Amino acid sequence: MTCERVTLPVGGTAFVCSSRRRQKCHCGRTASLLCDWKMPDRESGTCDVPICKDCATSPAPGKDLCAAHAEAFEKWKRDRQP
Fold it and tell me: What is the pLDDT of residue 69?
């Protein structure tokens, strides 16, 4: 079981424990984010590839993309330009 110490916004701390293994980013660091690229065929509706803050691209507040989908997003933007 993995436990993490969390500082609460109102002061104090708590321990959050989970039986899930910590997920790793492709770079080997602990992933704290999941890719938010929309994928309607998945149950969650998003890609959900684990990514660390250093490898993530954030195209909008609260949205994070893995490297492959950051590239796809840039292509999508280029294709929409007149």
Answer: 97
